[in-house]
Design a protein that fits this description.
- The chain contains ten helices and seven strands.
- It has about 220 residues and is an alpha/beta fold.
- It folds into two domains: about 150 residues, HAD superfamily/HAD-like (Rossmann fold, 3-Layer(aba) Sandwich), CATH 3.40.50; about 50 residues, DNA polymerase, domain 1.
- Strands 4-3-2-1-5-6-7 form a seven-stranded mixed beta sheet, sandwiched between helices.
């Protein structure tokens, strides 16, 4: 029987990096993208519009760069320990990311993640077109996916945990039974139930253990 669900952001939460910043650095537009990313994470820009503006800057980039990007991604400390603990204790794990499925799916597969939702880059002739395909992972969609996955598992809200680092995670954090701000921006810390400021994802384990014991 499933005991609970953790839904977490990817960039600067599961992993140390912001993938779109790595894409930008590789393609020579790193500073322009980083500036837009920071404004979005601080809540000063609409996330959907800022994402589209950043992706436009990647027009013409070859998909052969993805392997280079993956080689420069590092899991935050304790990531595998946390996910293994959750699976051993009948929790499911979902990743919901404003990043890109071309990268996120590989990370998820390696960690045996149960659910994944991320953006799709439009590709033509092996190059990025500067556009996105399908629905965009907005703050509201992050919340919607938490609810969808929770309902598919037939578990109560109280048995859900959400974790993220930026303003685009606020709705998801507020929807969860327990909201965790991980190395987070001030806007997210204001609404979270608990903060993890150590940079170690494994510091979530005692919080999950208490939830399990309380049940």
């Amino acid at each position: 029987m499933v005991k609970g669900l953790l839904v977490m952001d990817v960039d600067s939460t599961l992993i140390k990096e912001e993938v779109i910043d790595l894409l930008g650095e590789t393609y020579g537009v790193g500073q322009e993208i980083a500036n837009i990313t920071e404004l979005a994470m601080q809540g000063h820009l609409n996330f959907e519009q800022s994402l589209k503006e950043r992706v436009k800057l990647l027009k013409g980039m070859s998909t052969s760069s993805f392997d280079h990007i993956l080689s420069h991604i590092h899991l935050n400390d304790g990531a595998k320990e946390l996910i293994d603990y959750l699976h051993e204790n009948d929790y499911k794990v979902g990743l919901v990311s404003g990043g890109f499925h071309e990268i996120v799916n590989i990370i998820a597969r390696n960690l045996k993640i149960d659910f994944v939702k991320a953006n799709h880059l439009e590709i033509a002739n092996g190059k990025l077109t500067g556009n996105l395909e399908g629905e965009i992972v907005t703050p509201n969609l992050k919340k919607t996916m938490l609810i969808k996955w929770r309902d598919s598992l037939s578990i109560d809200k109280e048995k859900t945990v959400a974790m993220g680092d930026g303003a685009n995670d606020i709705l998801m954090i507020k929807e969860a039974g327990t909201g965790i701000a991980f190395m987070a921006k001030p806007a997210l810390k204001e609404v979270a139930d608990t903060e993890i400021n150590s940079g170690k994802l494994s510091d979530l384990i005692p919080i999950i253990k208490k939830k399990i014991d309380d049940d």
